[in-house]
Amino acid sequence: FDQLLRGRIVSGMKVLDAGCGSGRNLIFLMRAGFEVWGVDESEEAIAAVQRFATDIAPDVSPGRFRVERVESMSHDSDSMDVVISSAVLHFARDASHWLAMVREMWRVLAPGGLLFAGLATTVGQPHLRPLGGGRYVMPDGMTRFLVDHERLLNVTHELGGSLLDPLKSTVVHEQRSMGTWVVRKA
Q1: Nearest 10 degrees: CA dihedral of 122, 127, 129, 133?
Q2: To bridge 49 with a disulfide, which of 23, 31, 84, 120 should be the other Cys (CB 3.0-4.6 Å)?
Q3: Angstrom distance (rounded) from CA 43 to CA 25
Q4: What is the pTM of this model?
């Protein structure tokens, strides 16, 4: 919502929710009249999005919501103005898988487009148990792929992007840390 309030996501933009789940981020955007698409590897989740899209925005084709993996989407290159990835990247199997998802989101993002990722980080979490390959057992017992700010800065540079906001992480004491990574494609 902060990106909407800042005017970085405006009506008329094409918005892709990469790893949309059952569409919690899409409901508001559809009601507000945005051009939206979504992908998720779960058939059940996509079926749910297609059902509520029919009710909320009957003019939106259910074909805009597809059963696909984030790392191998069928969208054209440079076709989206905004790509949202909310609580998806920490499900990566390892660093290669994480980077494949990021690169695929970057591929479909148009020049000048915005990538918004909400993802789990290592920031402020001294009690993580490393499993290798970027995966950790977190204090709440969940296993996730976690990033630090250095990785996000390095990947931003490698992609040729620029940060629109400083990297931010919210620490939930002795449980987890969620960060935001907001990048503009050159």
Answers
A1: 10
A2: 23
A3: 17
A4: 0.94
